[in-house]
Amino acid sequence: MINEEELYEVREHVENLLEDHEVLQLESTDLSTLDAEPGQYTAVYAEFLWAQVPRETQDKFLKQLREKVGKDVLLVLLGEDYVDGESFPIARTDQHGNTYEFQKDDAGHRVEVMKNYPSDSWLRKRLGIAAREIKVLRSEYYWVVTGRLK
Question: Where are the strands (E) in the chain, listed by range?
Answer without folding.
Answer: 23-26, 43-47, 74-80, 90-93, 99-104, 110-114, 131-138, 142-149
